[in-house]
Structure formats: structure tokens, C-alpha cells
Design brief:
The chain is mostly helical. Helices cover 68% and strands 2% of the residues. The radius of gyration is 21 Å and the shape is globular. Helix 2 runs parallel beside helix 10. The chain has a 3-stranded antiparallel β-sheet.
């Protein structure tokens, strides 16, 4: 109880500068989440497109899809379906694990790449897990909006929904397990032990620097992509919500093992963050408006 009282006393003592600092950290984390999300989704489709090219197709790479693929089933085989629909998610998972490892090597530094690599790995792993979680909804449902990714593979291999239901449950379980481990990495973005020296401080830090950025970023992306792959993005964000909810609940008894660097890597100028984000989105929209023929 004393921890709770002490923590809220500190919250009540926040001055306007501290309020602006919280806002800057939220804005920075949100920008990093959106930027890395768009990068990961593009990487996912790019790898799938190049896999299609290697198999002899003439794909057109757009940001939100790979088009100009043959629609008739006789142009496909089980192996081709597996390669095309699994190459992107598996590659993204592999890159995400490498990025997470790279983040661990940067823990003792104050480099801006520390939060960037963490958010990049977060979006990579969450995107892969979203494909696993949704598989039971899309399997065998050829006209369903959930018929994409691993659902297509399962349908071609005649894996029914009863067989895919445990896979979906595994996806949810691994999401919670990933959140259990990655929570330490997010807490290490704090530049002070005092901010996270009790349960309430940890949850407040996670709320401002993980939960809110994911929620704000997800709503923003859903609005921007409402006419594109809305359902696929929505499923990804539901997976992200599962992860951040477990991160928020996660209670680490001891913080002595955390590697806290005093330099605040999330205290980034809001204006610069927004300009960077807008320029990135504008270039992405312009470059892939008509698609890239491979």
C-alpha cells in the first residue's frame, strides 16, 4: 500500500515540463511503432513477391498486397502455395528475432536504435503470431476476409478447422509468452530506476510508453488503410493488444537486473518525429501507388 501512496504522490508532483516529457515519449514511441509497422508489412509482402518471381510468376509489388498472380488453381501446387504464403511471415519472424538480439546488444547504450530495434522486433513477431492466431478462421473459408497467409496453406493441405484450432491457441499462448519476456526490454527504456521501482510505476511506464503508442498507432493505421487490408491489419493489432496487455500485467519482483541507461532515448522532439513519419508515409504512398513490377 505504501508503494501505491508514494507513487501517486510522485505523480501529483509532476510539473509542466514533466507533462511535456511524457507527451514527447508517447509521441516518439507512437512514431516508432507506426514506422516499424509499415516497414515490417512491406518487408513481408516484398519477400512473398520475390518468392513468386523465383517461381516464374510476374508479381506486382504493392505496399498492401502482391498482385498480378494467376487466379486459376492449375497454375499452383501445394509446394508453390506453401512457399509463397509462408516465405514472408517466416522471414519476418527471423528478422524480428535478429532485431531483438541486436536490441539486447544495445541495452547499455543511449543510441536511438535501441527503441527502434525493439519496436521493429515487436512488430515482426506480432505480425507472425497474428498469422498463426487467425489460421482457424480462414481455413477452408475461401470467401472469408481471413483467408490469407497460413490459412491458405492449411486449406490447400486439407487441414480442417478442428486441426487448426489448437494452432490458434498456440498462437495466443506464444503471444503471452513473448510478452512475458519482452516486458523487461520495454522497462529498460526507462532512463530512471525511480520511475519503475514498484508495480504501479512499472504499469504507468508501460501504459504511457507501450499501451498508448500501440493503441494510438493502431487506430491511425486502421484509418489510413481502411480501403486496403483492413481486416488483416485489425487481426495484427488484436495480436498486439494481447501482447501489450500481458506486458502491462507483468510484474517483475526485482529491477536490479534491468540495464537502465540514464540517457532518455524516447525523449525525441515531437515535431521532428511527426515530420519524419509524414515524409515516410508520403514516399511510401507515392512509390507504391501503382505498384512495382518485378
Amino acid at each position: 500500500m505504501s508503494d501505491k501512496i508514494d507513487y501517486y504522490k510522485n505523480i501529483n508532483k509532476l510539473n509542466p515540463e514533466s507533462g511535456r516529457l511524457i507527451f514527447r515519449r508517447i509521441a516518439t514511441s507512437t512514431c516508432f511503432f507506426i514506422l516499424t509497422f509499415y516497414t515490417v508489412v512491406f518487408l513481408n509482402h516484398a519477400i512473398s513477391a520475390y518468392a513468386a518471381k523465383i517461381m516464374g510468376y510476374d508479381p506486382v509489388l504493392k505496399y498492401f498486397e502482391v498482385s498480378n498472380l494467376p487466379m486459376d488453381w492449375e497454375h499452383w501446387s501445394k509446394l508453390r502455395v506453401f512457399v509463397f504464403y509462408s516465405s514472408g511471415p517466416l522471414f519476418v519472424l527471423f528478422v524480428g528475432l535478429i532485431s531483438w538480439h541486436l536490441h539486447s546488444l544495445l541495452k547499455k547504450t543511449s543510441s536511438i536504435f535501441k527503441p527502434v530495434t525493439l519496436w521493429f522486433s515487436f512488430n515482426c513477431i506480432v505480425l507472425f503470431l497474428s498469422y498463426v492466431i487467425v489460421v482457424v478462421l480462414g481455413t477452408g473459408s475461401y470467401n472469408s476476409p481471413f483467408y490469407y497467409g497460413f490459412s491458405v496453406i492449411a486449406s490447400w493441405y486439407w487441414f480442417g478447422k478442428p486441426l487448426m484450432a489448437p494452432v490458434t491457441l498456440l498462437g495466443v499462448g506464444f503471444s503471452a509468452l513473448y510478452a512475458f519476456f519482452v516486458s523487461r526490454s520495454f522497462l529498460e527504456l526507462s532512463s530512471s530506476y525511480k520511475r519503475i521501482n514498484n508495480l504501479y510505476g512499472k504499469r504507468a511506464f508501460v501504459f504511457y510508453n507501450v499501451v498508448l503508442p500501440v493503441f494510438i498507432g493502431s487506430v491511425t493505421i486502421l484509418v489510413l488503410r481502411a480501403d486496403k487490408d483492413f481486416i488483416e491489419s485489425l487481426v495484427t493489432f488484436i495480436s498486439a493488444i494481447i501482447v501489450v496487455f500481458v506486458i502491462w500485467l507483468r510484474s517483475i519482483p526485482k529491477i536490479s537486473g534491468l540495464k537502465i541507461v540514464k540517457s532518455d532515448t524516447l525523449d525525441f522532439p515531437v515535431g521532428f518525429s511527426l515530420i519524419l513519419l509524414l515524409v515516410f508515409l508520403a514516399l511510401l504512398s507515392w512509390f507504391f501507388e501503382n505498384g512495382l513490377v518485378l
